[in-house]
């Protein structure tokens, strides 16, 4: 299985804006680069390929790098384990050993999905989730959709859903009108962002945007039929076919944790700790983009370039990008301030609301435990297929579990469920000098 | 009009656009993606391979994420175990 063992000077994990920028920057230094992603197409979430509309124009240029000779692109390749100097990954072609001189973690973010009564009903998805499904070709024509939660992603999601034929009934943002007004006043400091907001406003013409408005319940038997909203003027119900609700993003730090990289906290959630040149606490391991804390596409692009240069030994080029990085990160800080979660969002789950969707564990079963690990052992919360990615993050956000000791804490391999055959492939191959 | 792919969901043929995922085929076929431990129907939540609510059996291999699997001609998808 020699073809399943690959060697790179620089290996990039994640093919979103940060990973693509890292691959481009590293390749410009003349080194051999590999870039992997678990998804079938490159672009990450923000540049996800749209079955009906293709890739966004800005992404097309970034994606060019995958056709360049020095960059090898491995799609549908999921990293499952970390060894010294190489990663084990699973792909449709079987297990792959990916050896590297330097590693760039561009693992991106996932959506913050918080439990509320009815959130397990088919028809309830994340806001980014709905956008991702729309781009996959999810049937939306004529469907009544409500977009809710928090952050600028709601606007982008609503625009995508509308473009795919959905009837977007409204956007419900939990942040107060006052917080949003302050943000609007400061927005001209970032002219490109102000332009982006203006363009979205045009795309969303006619769709109501409601501040201080939270989804408190979803109802239906086997499919969502209506939701209940709590806004500044009380509660009301809206009949709809789909609810796209997400409360922002959280960094994917599992691989960094498995590699032993130091993590730091931003609010309730961990992010990869790095120095100004994006070096993690582990030698030859760099990180960029959302894994360092939610900063959006612009942060990802500049950080990817810094990390890619550093991984290929180009310190000067990385230094030259420092001021640009400070500028784009300042906007991210502004977003965090504006869209900070209202405490009532943390109190939506009731005693019988399922927290762990894999193992059907209600909030009631988790009360009374001081140690999240005890709660996990007693209830199976976090022991299902998602490995605590949804419930562990939610519990950390709700203040019911320390992120480091929560249901997804203390990361152990494999990073994702993997077939025994895939593990057997790699660990029974004596010719590679690897023994179980 | 882009070309279309035909696959089967629980033995019923479904047509999806080229490049669509298995999740789209299941949505078009109607019905749940999986049944939870407590017997509830479930469907995709995250759309990006994190939540595993869309896991199904594809060509005999269980526990595959439908939202990350491109639909291919002749694929056999089962949502009932």
Pick out its properties.
heterodimer; A: 436 residues; alpha/beta; 7-stranded mixed beta sheet; 5-stranded parallel beta sheet; 13 helices; 21 strands; 31% helix; globular; B: 81 residues; mainly beta; Ubiquitin-like (UB roll); two-stranded antiparallel ribbon; 1 helix; oxidoreductase (chain B); Sarcosine oxidase subunit alpha (chain B)
Topology record:
The complex is a heterodimer of chains A (436) and B (81).
Chain A: E1 5-13, H1 17-27, E2 33-36, H2 57-63, E3 71-74, E4 78-83, E5 86-91, E6 94-105, E7 109-111, E8 124-125, H3 127-136, E9 144-149, H4 153-163, E10 167-173, H5 177-186, H6 191-203, E11 209-210, E12 214-220, E13 224-231, E14 234-239, E15 242-246, E16 249-251, H7 254-259, E17 263-266, E18 269-272, E19 285-287, H8 296-311, H9 315-320, H10 322-338, E20 354-356, E21 361-362, H11 372-379, H12 389-398, H13 420-427
Parallel strand pairs in A: 1-2, 1-6, 2-3, 6-19, 8-15, 9-10, 9-15, 10-11
Antiparallel strand pairs in A: 4-5, 5-6, 7-16, 12-13, 13-14, 17-18, 20-21
Chain B: E1 4-9, E2 12-17, H1 22-29, E3 34-35, E4 41-42, E5 55-58, E6 61-65, E7 76-78
Parallel strand pairs in B: 1-7
Antiparallel strand pairs in B: 1-2, 3-4, 5-6, 5-7
**Rounded mean pLDDT score of chain B:** 95
CATH superfamily of chain B: Beta-grasp domain
Assembly level: heterodimer
Strand order, sheet with most strands of chain B? 2-1-7-5-6
Number of helices of chain A: 13
**Low-pLDDT ranges of chain B:** none
The rounded distance between the terminal residues' Cα atoms of chain B is 34 Å
Helix/strand structural class of chain B: mainly beta
Mean pLDDT of chain A, as a whole number?
A: 92
Number of helical elements of chain B: 1
Distance between the termini of chain A: 17 Å
Largest sheet of chain A: 7 strands, mixed
**Main structural class of chain A:** alpha/beta
The geometry of chain A reads as globular
């Amino acid at each position: 299985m020699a073809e399943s063992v690959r060697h790179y000077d620089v290996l990039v994990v994640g093919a979103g804006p940060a990973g693509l920028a890292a691959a481009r920057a590293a390749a410009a230094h003349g080194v051999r680069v590999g870039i992997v992603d678990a998804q079938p197409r490159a672009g990450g979430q923000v540049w996800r390929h749209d079955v009906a509309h293709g890739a966004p124009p800005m992404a097309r240029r970034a994606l060019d790098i995958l056709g360049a000779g020095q960059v090898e692109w491995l799609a549908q390749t999921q990293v499952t384990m970390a060894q010294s100097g190489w990663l084990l990954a699973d792909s449709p072609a079987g297990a792959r050993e990916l050896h590297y001189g330097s590693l760039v973690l561009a693992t991106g973010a996932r959506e913050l999905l918080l439990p509320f009564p009815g959130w397990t009903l088919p028809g309830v998805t994340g806001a980014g989730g709905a956008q991702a499904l729309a781009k996959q070709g999810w049937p939306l024509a004529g469907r009544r959709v409500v977009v809710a939660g928090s952050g600028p992603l709601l606007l982008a999601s609503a625009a995508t859903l509308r473009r795919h034929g959905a009837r977007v009934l409204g956007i419900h943002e939990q942040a107060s009108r006052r917080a949003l007004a302050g943000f609007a006043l400061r927005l001209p400091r970032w002219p490109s962002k102000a332009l982006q907001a203006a363009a979205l406003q045009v795309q969303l013409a006619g769709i109501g945007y409601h501040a201080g408005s939270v989804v408190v319940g979803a109802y239906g038997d086997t499919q969502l039929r209506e939701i209940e909203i709590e806004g500044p003027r009380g509660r009301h119900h809206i009949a709809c076919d789909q609810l796209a609700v997400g409360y922002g993003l959280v960094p994917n730090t599992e691989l960094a944790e498995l590699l032993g990289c130091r993590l730091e906290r931003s609010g309730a959630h961990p992010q990869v700790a790095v120095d100004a040149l994006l070096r993690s606490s582990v030698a030859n391991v760099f990180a960029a983009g959302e894994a360092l804390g939610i900063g959006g596409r612009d942060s990802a692009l500049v950080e990817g370039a810094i990390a890619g240069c550093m991984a290929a030994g180009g310190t000067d080029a990385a230094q030259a990008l420092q001021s640009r990085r400070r500028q784009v990160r300042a906007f991210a800080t502004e977003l965090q301030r504006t869209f900070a979660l209202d405490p009532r969002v943390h109190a939506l789950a009731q005693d019988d609301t399922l927290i762990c969707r894999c193992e059907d564990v209600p909030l009631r079963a988790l009360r009374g435990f001081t140690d999240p690990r005890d709660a996990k052992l007693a209830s199976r919360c976090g022991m299902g297929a998602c490995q605590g990615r949804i419930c562990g993050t939610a519990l950390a956000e709700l203040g019911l579990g320390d992120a480091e000791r929560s249901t997804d804490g203390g990361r152990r391999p494999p990073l994702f469920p993997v077939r025994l055959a895939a593990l057997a492939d790699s660990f029974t191959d004596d010719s590679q000098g690897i023994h179980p | 009009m882009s070309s279309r792919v035909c696959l089967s969901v629980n033995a019923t043929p479904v047509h999806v656009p080229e490049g669509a995922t298995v999740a789209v085929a299941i949505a078009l076929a109607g019905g749940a993606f999986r049944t939870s431990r407590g017997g509830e129907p479930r469907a995709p939540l995250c759309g990006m391979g994190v939540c595993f609510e869309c896991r199904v059996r594809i060509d005999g291999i269980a526990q595959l994420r439908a939202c990350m699997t491109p639909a291919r001609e002749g694929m056999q998808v089962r949502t009932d175990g």
